[in-house]
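Long-time lurker, first post. I've been practising inverse folding by hand and with some scripts of my own, and I keep getting stuck on stretches where the structure tokens seem ambiguous. Below is the full token string for one chain I'm working on. Before anyone asks, I'm not after the true native sequence, just a reasonable design that respects the backbone. If someone could post their per-position residues I'd love to compare against what I wrote down in my notebook.
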């Protein structure tokens, strides 16, 4: 199964203090780098976590987050998981 056309094109998304930058697509799922908007420092990445069957945040060690960033990261993970599931459901309906 390939990543659907609707999930392959993923623009950079902006949060209040963070930015979600798409990594090169993998065969089945996507990855985003989470970076600080002001210094472009790498804070972690969001990728598919198979055991939980959803996108999850993998922070770099020693990173500290406040409530706004945590909410934005959680919202991003939830939205991308929902989009992934909807795309897979649409593919199954089309018989792909």
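-- Answer (accepted) --
I ran through it position by position. Result:
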């Amino acid at each position: 199964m390939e990543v659907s056309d609707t999930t392959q094109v993923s623009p950079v998304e902006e949060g209040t203090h963070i930015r979600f930058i798409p990594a090169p697509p993998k065969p089945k799922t996507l990855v985003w780098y989470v970076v600080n908007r002001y210094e472009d420092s790498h804070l972690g990445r969001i990728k598919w976590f198979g055991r939980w069957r959803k996108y999850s945040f993998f922070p770099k060690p020693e990173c500290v987050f406040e409530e706004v960033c945590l909410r934005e990261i959680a919202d991003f993970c939830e939205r991308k998981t929902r989009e992934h599931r909807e795309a897979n459901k649409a593919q199954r309906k089309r018989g792909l």
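A couple of notes from the structure itself: Residues 1-7 have pLDDT under 50 and may be disordered. The first strand starts at residue 13 and ends at 14. Happy to go over any region you disagree with.
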